[in-house]
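Page 42, continued from yesterday. The earlier attempt failed because a stray header line got pasted into the input along with the sequence. Redoing it now with the clean sequence only.
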Amino acid sequence: MKPALVLFISVVSMLSYGVWTASVKDLEPRSPSMVAERVRSAANVIADAVVQLLRQHVVDPLVLPDARKNFTLEIWVVKFDGVLYLTNGWLRDLKTMVRSGEADVQFDGDLVHITTNLDFNTLHLNYDYRVTVMGLEPSGKLLGAAEDLRLALHLTADLSTFKTTLSSLNVLNAANTEVEVQGGGAQDEIVNAIIRLVKPYFEQDILNILEDKITSTLEEALIDFDIGEILGL
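This time it went through. Structure tokens are written below.
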């Protein structure tokens, strides 16, 4: 047999063997225990990949809606009705989120539930304010900060398709919130009234807006997220 022909047959044989072994490998069953072990080992990696995905898609700063708050100011037993107007609001530093602690994994048939917490260092609030009370109309800037804000994240992945969905995302707490009124020459009583109005608005309404926005953003971002790529399956 001619040397060239021998070489050709050898090359074809090697290529055929490679294709055959690859095909056999693709057909090898993935045992549930093997898949489960890979998920457990990669739980933190999966959670971090989701956090990175969220950072890429979340809008920062987040525009906040205008607000109007009625209040009553009492000075020396005399009561004055007033209105606080908040405009041009935004919340920034949303992209500072990081995973906190180890991700937990629970299996339910073909579904795997991955839960973890997301922490923000400090979120900053900014509004323009105007007050009408006692014939006065002071205006200026209102600044706020929420420190150590934590969210609880619950993901569900289908191991038959490797698709991941958001089961829930909830604000757990903000360890400390501060509100500061700047400018406008408002009297101390008015400043204190503004702070009493805005602090619960910040801790409840605005953090609920944040929760809703991150939830909708992550739900959309997860549509094309495939944990099979992370697991090597």
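Notes: DSSP finds four helices and seven strands in the chain.
Reminder to self: strip header lines before submitting.
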